[in-house]
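so i finally got all the pieces together for this one. its two components total, 552 residues if u count the protein bits. some of the lines might not be protein, just check the labels. i wanna see the whole assembly predicted at once instead of chain by chain like last time, that was a mess tbh
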Amino acid sequence: MLRLYATVAAGGFRRHATYRVATAAGVFTNTVFGFILSYTYIALWDERPQLGGYSMDDALAYVWIGQALITVCGLMGGGFEDELIERIRTGDIAVDLYRPADLQAWWFSANLGRSAYQLLGRGVVPMAVGALVFDFTLPSGPGTWLAFLVAVALGSTVSFAIWYLVAMSAFWLLDGQGVVQVAWLGGLFFSGMLLPLNVFPGALGELARVLPWASMLQVPADVYLGKYEGWRGLAGAYAFQGCWAVVLFGAGRAAQAAATRKVVVQGG
Amino acid sequence: MAEALRTSRDSRRAYPLVSDSWRTYRMVAGMWIRSTMTYRSSFALTLVTSFCVTFFDFVVILLMFGQVRGLGGFSFAEVALLYGTTGTSFGLADLTMGSLQRMGKRVRDGSLDTFLMRPAPLLAQVAADKFALRRFGRVAQGLLVLVWALVLLDVAWTPVKVLLLPVMLVSGAVIFAAVMVLGASALFWMQDAAEVTSSFTYGGNTLLQYPPTIFAQELVRGVVFVVPLAFVNWLPALYVLGRPAPAGVPGWAVFASPLVAAVCCGVAGIAWRAGIRSYRSTGS
């Protein structure tokens, strides 16, 4: 069974690796946005050094981590939900449900392959360009890089769980666009994509830091910047991400079970 | 198939009448609006989120000004003016031409052929394809911030400055629209390159929300002389605010937005025609 999912994951990787022009275009766009955001952050941190506990170099690293993780952690759309929703809308999902594999595990594996490709294809280059031009904070050692990668993997898992749940709504609504937009909006704002969550003021900041979206960018970035002290701090961060992953996976399963029991698949 | 395509293309005017394009655009857009209204609740949600997405974008600037009193020497009201002008212009362009970025899919799967067979201007058909009325949310939000900025601003208004505002909004929208058409033209050759256009449209919109003083001088010169996005709002807005134009930019440039918009349209038109001519369908 595990071999099947490994094959699906490899397929996901290869499928996205086929679109080289799209990858190059994505890298270009991420780099351009990285530049624009960097200058706005420089202006902001010029006025308020140490804002949110970040030095200017930390803030610049944060910008480029965000650009590198956009597709990996589904900060602006999970990258698979449109396809899944379309299958639900057209009724093709019936074929998927007949397969001797679990629907959620199937899509998770495919998404894992996609994320891995996006990390290599779209993450590394913008990060390197940003580091060369802006000379921002780099992790203190290989251990921190490794810890960062683990946090990214967990963040990508939470992202999958959220987008899967979003896609499940299409069983009831058929046109998933509205829910996708809402999820997109929530993700964009509460992941810290627009502004680091530790710069958010008061209660809004506290709320934002405990919502699941915090696991997708803020936590990995803080791991990268070494903001968690010692093993205990790091374990706490992973536990936060892990808990949300488990809860949201469970919710996705429940929605899937309810949908396949009650909903009549679209014919046509 | 290729034969049929050629005759249909040759029988069409090289320069379609504006009235033809407008009629086509209205018909196709109207069809998509009726189709969207089938799922009313979903439409209401998307309209609200479209408004909110752009509003959250502005919340970031509000949050920034919660921490600082000025960005690059610009006050909140001044940044809001920049935000409102580019937001409205970009919103108008996105509402009318935003569908162009998805044309790559039609080139790849060959469904563009259907469009070429119809006796109607291609650009109008593709631009109105999947017309999304929800994108009006962005225009509404941009206008709202603009009005807010105008209330807050302490500017000595002259007739020229008052006139410059609507000119700036319209020229800005035309410049953004031309960039979108230019980007779509490239899709005839590279179907997957749509994101490059985003970095000039969405990216340009983000860039123009902030004062030019915070960016590197080379970057500012780039959007004045290479991709003339600075004419969308930076240059005219600097005049309205009574601030000097960026170094190396002639003084009359603040009034040149309509001219630049016209030139952009010309370039985009040439690129579009070159794109159509090189279109070879998928062959399957």
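Residues 2-262 of chain A form one domain.
Chain A touches chain B at residues 19, 21-22, 24-26, 28-29, 32-33, 35-37, 39-40, 42-44, 47-48, 51, 173-179, 181-182, 184-185, 188-189, 194-195, 199-201 (CB under 8 Å).
anyway lmk what u think
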